[in-house]
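Table S2 (text version). Query chain:
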Amino acid sequence: MKVSILGAGAMGAALTIPYSEKNDVILWGTEFDTAILDKLTKGEEHPRIGAKVAAKEILYPNELDKALDADIILIGVSTEGVMGIFKKIEKNLENQIIITIAKGFIERDEILTIPEAIWEDRRDLKGKIVSVTGPSIAREVAMKLPTHVTYSSVSEKTLDLIKNSLETHFYRIEASRDIIGCEVGSALKNVYSIAISWIRGIESRKNVTMNNLKGIIVSMALREISQMVTAKGGRWKSVYGFTGIGDLIATFRGGRNGMFGELLGKGYDVKSALKELEKRGVGVIEGYTNASRAYRLAEELDERGRLRLEELKLLNGINNVLYHGGNADEVIDALF
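Corresponding structure-token output:
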């Protein structure tokens, strides 16, 4: 099989390593990736994953058409860039399988998951869209450390092909037909992992250990994510698998959203925390960019009578801290 990965960021680059074990892999970079592409074409390590990519061919932004000559196309950019890339390639899509790895919501007349937004534009591709969710830190994938993720689609045939083509001994794939539940749960875990990571920052600031509180916040997060998933039409069981609890742990322990939440717990305001992460070379904080959309989705589901927003105390607290000047200590105190 021939696989094209569109986006040379950390995860796109990391996935060249498992994917190349059974397939010919092309890595195409956007205009934001040119400095990285220059390094990769010289045979150097990718600066964000500490490893060399395993792509058979590396392509620059002006070579997008060449990258579309593939059986499987993975869109490996952030949520904000997914639909822009899709619009660029849409006219060239026929029978290819499209994989998305971004974990967030798209804002239109209503809040949509990424697959729903693609289906809205191209209904004929519904059975060809696959999403990737689950605990997957890019550097660990690149190091061939144990990874087990969920690939979801409405089509069992598509899932069978994907699993047979992309799974390796260290990069394991669970197939799920619950693409809505997986997508909603995965987007929300980015948001809620920020709150869980507040505790790590508070512990550091106060020089205490607060494992009880971590357990409380994780439990609240999973309950609220489950409510949102089922209200949106997904299955609550997806929240308690790799997509939900598995990814939640990986994200608040080692992901960018966790780093952001920890800084907020240490006393940084949102603006200074984002600046600090930028200095460290950390990429897009998906949980921050999607938290407002998660809140709007909850409002929509409330208006439809599918849940009660006032009962989502942790989501309300996250919204307060990120967008209304609240602080983590006050929100946590208000939860009890």
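Notes on Table S2: The first helix runs from residue 10 to 19. The beta strands are 2-6, 24-28, 57-59, 72-75, 97-100, 105-107, 111-113, 129-133, 147-152, 171-176.
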